[in-house]
């Protein structure tokens, strides 16, 4: 018995470890299996064949929303993003790529979902983009903030950096600074957050396509492309 | 002496639980996506979190399980297992130091579960060094 006891203990621990890992992996809802990283997305990797999630409506977000692409586009993507979130920064060029590939078939809406207090500058970044939006330059500021995410996220004070972007974009900087701290910007961010919560958004990036959540594992470019193609096929366009 | 191997076995069990949790977070993408409660997204979404397509956390879980098994075997009188425990723990400690460097100076983000793992590996190293000196 003494000879076999250590092996029994080892096997029991192994069984418990594997069993709990299996159980937890299965019980986590809508569990994606691949992170949104360029490294992880191999071209041949299959798109998750999950049951289509239901179409969700939710409460309205900020009005008017920030939208790119035609209103009659067959594919309507709504992204809830946090400018300081690294996976959102990785997802940004993926969405740009999809926009370039699918053109007018794609309509993209961006919703603010700053994760406070996880990301200390997320709210300032969202405010900067919204303040630029009040001068008609939301997407330009959105792109600048994402593209320079690694330049500003470690800084103690990001406001001068974002003001630099505002200058670069030719905004009225004094108005931009007032708007950054104004009620309108705060209300827009709040409204988008409220919409996100009503749709069950828990983290970023969360992407909805034609009202259905795209599983996180399908956000790498190769998989997202297939998801869009499938959606286009099913809509007959 | 034997008590120290019990401590080593228990420490590696805690390490195994920690590494398993990180593996699940990694595989399911729950930590890779940014959430309100997550502090590990930057670390787990970095290229350093994967080695040859395998999540580093899973490699860590396997390592802790190996140390646990070897500590149990040592407790039950398999003398060679003790040497292997020491070799494993020294290797794991060296890797932990490297990963701490990556977190501090390359990613510049700390994941609390990775810090816990580094702490457990350090404790394991201390235990194995005490065993060696106690001989």
How does the SSE layout of this entry go?
The complex is a heterodimer of chains A (237) and B (135).
Chain A: H1 5-27, E1 66-68, E2 75-81, H2 86-102, E3 106-112, H3 122-133, H4 138-147, H5 149-152, H6 159-168, H7 173-180, H8 183-198, E4 203-204, E5 206-209, E6 212-214, H9 221-234
Parallel strand pairs in A: 2-3
Antiparallel strand pairs in A: 1-3, 2-5, 5-6
Helix pairs in contact in A: 3-4, 3-6, 3-7, 3-8
Chain B: H1 2-28, E1 34-35, H2 41-44, E2 50-51, E3 54-55, H3 56-75, H4 79-107, H5 112-134
Antiparallel strand pairs in B: 2-3
Helix pairs in contact in B: 1-3, 1-5, 3-4, 4-5
Structural class of chain A: alpha+beta
Total strands of chain B: the figure is 3
User: CA-to-CA gap between the ends of chain B?
Assistant: 8 Å
Question: Can you summarize the main beta sheet of chain B?
Answer: 2 strands, antiparallel
Please give the count of helices of chain A. Answer: 9
Overall pLDDT of chain B = 86
Helix content of chain B: over 70%
- Uncertain runs of chain B are none
Give the fraction of residues assigned to helices of chain A. Answer: 40-55%
- How far do the termini of chain A sit from each other? 70 Å
Shape of chain A: globular
| Total count of strands of chain A | 6
Strand order of the largest sheet of chain B: 2-3
Strand content of chain A: 5-15%
Number of helices of chain B: 5
List descriptors.
heterodimer; A: 237 residues; alpha+beta; 5-stranded mixed β-sheet; 11% strand; B: 135 residues; mainly alpha; 5 helices; 3 strands
Descriptive overview:
The complex is a heterodimer of chains A (237) and B (135). Helices cover 48% and strands 11% of the residues of chain A. Chain A has helices at 5-27, 86-102, 122-133, 138-147, 149-152, 159-168, 173-180, 183-198, 221-234, and strands at residues 66-68, 75-81, 106-112, 203-204, 206-209, 212-214. In chain A, a hairpin with a 2-residue loop joins strand 5 (206-209) and strand 6. In chain A, helix 3 (122-133) packs across helix 8 (183-198). Chain A starts with a helix and ends with a helix. By secondary structure, chain B is mainly α. The model of chain B has no long low-confidence stretch (mean pLDDT 86). In chain B, strands 2-3 form a two-stranded antiparallel ribbon. Chain A binds chain B through residues 2-3, 5-6, 9-10, 13-14, 17, 20-21, 24-25, 28, 31-37, 39-40, 82, 85-88, 90, 115, 118-119, 154, 202-206, 216-217, and chain B through 13, 16, 20, 23-24, 26-30, 32-39, 41-42, 44-47, 50, 61, 65, 68-69, 72-73, 75-76, 78, 108.
